[in-house]
Amino acid sequence: HADVRKDPFFVKKQHSITDDQRGQQQRKLKPGSRSVLVVRVTANDGSIEQTSKELSDTVFGPYGTPASQYRACSMNKLNLEMAAGTDVVNGVLDLFVDFSIVGTKVTDFENSDR
Q1: How confident is the prediction along the chain (114 residues), in pLDDT tens digits per residue?
Q2: Which long-range contacts (CB under 8 A, 24 or more apart) does 77-80 make?
Q3: Computed over its alpha carbons, how large is the radius of gyration of the chain?
Q4: What secondary structure, in 3-state letters, does 19-54 show?
Q5: CA-to-CA distance for 93 and 45, rounded, in angstroms?
Q6: Which long-range CB contacts under 8 A does 2-11 form with residues at least 24 apart?
Q7: Distance (Å, rounded) from C-alpha 98 to C-alpha 3?
Q8: C-alpha dihedral, 44 to 50 to 56 to 57, nearest 10°
Q9: Interior CA angle at 32 toward 27 and 37, to 5°?
Q10: Which residues have CB under 8 Å from 18's CB, separation 6+?
Q11: What are the C-alpha distances in Å from 5 to residues 2, 9, 10, 11, 16?
Q12: Is residue 72 a contact partner of residue 63, using CB atoms and an 8 Å limit?
């Protein structure tokens, strides 16, 4: 048997990591605050049932919301804050689209010029 360690084409096996370990390495927490904008869309023929205030409370409220869970899981190192700007109230922008949505698939909008 030839000694493969002396073979110039021998490649030493590299230490490998699992997909789970790779994912953990890629998901390093970057502490700080992130601005989050919730968009509530209303069309000619409908909108979601929640009001802008209810949506804001659902996302940014103190208990059981994405904002509170990120804060808790990161030990207060990552905070989701309400976006601010023109026509943004409590982190929510109400957007009206001038077309009908009932019976329409998402792909219909993706493939249109609207």
Answers
A1: 444 445 444 444 555 556 565 555 556 667 889 999 999 988 888 888 899 999 999 999 988 899 999 899 888 999 999 999 999 999 999 999 888 888 877 777 676 665
A2: 77/29, 77/31, 77/32, 78/29, 78/30, 78/31, 78/32, 78/33, 78/34, 79/32, 79/33, 79/34, 80/33, 80/34, 80/36
A3: 25
A4: HHHHHHHHCCCCCEEEEECEEEEEECCEECCCCHHH
A5: 19
A6: none
A7: 75
A8: 180
A9: 90
A10: none
A11: 9, 9, 6, 8, 20
A12: no
Structure tokens at 87: 């026509």
Interatomic CA distance for residues 65 and 58, integer angstroms: 6
Residues in CB range of 32: below 8 A, 6 or more apart: 77, 78, 79
Tokens 């030839």 map to which residue? 2
Threshold 0.70, pTM exceeds = no
Task: Quickly tell me which residue has 């689209």 as its tokens.
Answer: 97
Q: Supply 86's token pair.
A: 């023109």
Tokens 């019976």: give the residue: 103
